[in-house]
Amino acid sequence: MKIGKVPENVLKRSVFKQIHTKRPEVVLGAGVGEDCAAIKLAADETLVMSTDPITGTAKDIGTLAIQITVNDLASAGAEPVGVLLTVLLPENIREAKLRAMMEQVEAACAKVGVQVMGGHTEVTAVVNQPVITVCGVGKVKDGHIISTAGARPGMDILVTKWIGIEGTSIIAKEHEEELLTRFSAPFIEKAKELDVYLSVLSEAAVAVRSGVSAMHDVTEGGIFGALWEMAEASGVGLEIDIKKIPIRQETVEICEFFGINPYQLISSGCMLMAAEDGNTLVRELEKAGIPATIIGKATEGNDRVLLNADEQRFLEPPKTDELYKVGGVENA
């Protein structure tokens, strides 16, 4: 396609015609020439917004774009309502690829009841693979927002499911041939299918009902990055037992194969939480079929300590995600 705005006929045919999910709160939505979206909220509701780009992969980009943004809204205790998309496309892309991306977007939106309210779609020479930036909009009752900054000394720190599952799935999909030189096809398929765990909507809803004090979706920078960000936002220290951090065998082996650190690997689908009574929260999550593990405590002061048997070291500020060390993102 030619550089510039996506032509109106392509926009109507391959973008708007893929959008079907509607929300009653949205009173002005996507349309040719519309620069804004509008949402009508009840008097006792607060608007919650989040924005994120998908840059680390080109496969399943439409699905991931929605999932990651919805997870961010859920981590604030909000109900996702709608999204605005900025889609940047390279010159060599085919219209069929754009249509497929929008079909992924709509399928992901329909699954969680979210409306595509508008956005911008452009072909540009400044990208060499598709990039989707999503602005998510949600709502929460007044006084019920959960923040990353809610951890207090003495609180239990816990995580849901397993770390590294998003990165494991992405690597398995994009480096399948390379991985087949060591691993069996069923093993790689199992790794690819970890993407079924990427939503944190269920655990966020259970946690909000069960008295969670802070939540943070574990994304770029992995669990180490998320722990640092929660501690920094809350002004607390940490004592974290590395051996208690849950990790899948697929993640361990694929990270060993590429020589990367699973604790610094993008981990959407894993929610970091702080709670006064972590054991009760773990039980409530497990009743809902969501595995959860207490991995440590928040402490007074600023020391963020990682314990590993008799050894200890200090947590460092977030670094570049390990996913980018693997490289080879496909631009299909």
Characterize the structure shown.
With 332 residues, the chain is α+β, with helices and mostly antiparallel strands. Helices cover 33% and strands 26% of the residues. It has helices at 8-15, 61-75, 95-112, 165-174, 176-179, 185-192, 201-209, 222-234, 249-258, 278-287, 323-326, and strands spanning 4-5, 26-28, 38-39, 45-54, 79-89, 115-123, 131-141, 156-160, 212-217, 237-241, 271-275, 292-299, 304-308, 311-314. The strands form 3 sheets. A 7-stranded mixed sheet has the order 9-11-8-12-10-13-14, sandwiched between helices. Strands 1-6-5-7-4 form a 5-stranded mixed sheet, with helices on one face. α3 (95-112) links the parallel β5 (79-89) and β6. α4 (165-174) packs across α6.
Q: Outline the biggest β-sheet.
A: 7 strands, mixed
Query: How many strand segments?
Result: 14
| Order of strands, widest sheet | 9-11-8-12-10-13-14
Taken as a percent bin, the fraction of beta residues is: 25-35%
Mean pLDDT: 92
Low-confidence parts: none
Q: What is the C-alpha radius of gyration, as a whole number of Å?
A: 20 Å
Please report the distance between the alpha carbons of the first and last residues: 14 Å
| Amount of helix | 25-40%
Shape: globular
Counted by DSSP, the helix tally is 11
- By helix and strand content, what is the structural category? alpha+beta
> What is the succession of H and E elements?
EHEEEHEHEEEHHHHEHEHEHEEEH
